[in-house]
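hey so i finally got around to running the thing on that chain from the lab meeting. sorry it took forever, my laptop kept dying and i had to restart like 3 times. anyway pasting the input first so we r on the same page abt which one it is
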Amino acid sequence: MPDIFLTNGAGASATLSTTGASILELALDSKNLIPRAKDATKVFAGAVLAPWQNRLANGEWVDPKGRTLRNPINEVSLGNAHHGLVFDAEFSVKEQKTNSITFEHLIGESAGYPFKVNLEISYELTEFEFTCRFTATNKGQEIAPFVIGFHPYFAIGDSGPAFLTLPAQSFYTQTKSKTPDEKVPSANSDFDFSKGRALAGLEIDDFFTDLVVNAGEIVSRLDTADWVIELHQSENLKHLVVYLTDHFDSDSGVISALALEPASGAANAFNNQQDLVLINPGESFSGHWGVRLATK
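ok and heres what got predicted. didnt touch it at all, straight out
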């Protein structure tokens, strides 16, 4: 499908795709925050991740009825089903305005996920903020286990002056297949970002939780040489995946980028049950996240 463009004022623009309801590019106040990937689907750039986020170990899980369910492995090197079923699915456009859009997609019953969940993903752009709202509605007859996550990459330029602050009180150690193992307090550890840490020289692809809520929202902060943003998420998005890469293949060349991935449940939540949402038939699960420019 052709790209979809949102604008609001001279310096605010977003490029979206019906594939994965993905955020391909974002600029606020003429500051380029989200870079366009050469192959967005390959790196899940800006995509919606559902009905699980991150890795499902071995692609297998046991549902509430005791059925062992299997999903295709798309992370062959580690043996996982990665980032759900909709990152490459086609969403329809339910409503569109100059500065906002609502996408819709029905997750149909499959061998690995025998449930029907309708997803509505809405984006709204203002001059200094970009907001995403989601609603997942169970259209089936059974309780539907569900997790949702999002995968925006932010272009950080030179990682030398970049600085990340997270409101996380815990992180997860990882198994060899890069799924969560044990939840550990982050205070006074190498995973303590509560007072901010420089990104220069760091290797990070990790899971954070026990996020501090302040005035009804969870706020992380990313400082770069060119701009400062706050990534905010609703209280029911209780997890955050952080991934730093110096090899993001953008349309303008290979750059450094940081993925800040808000999520409702843990990686491998279908197996470890960490904040796994159970949506009753006819009921919905809703929340929001967004990014806004902050003052230096």
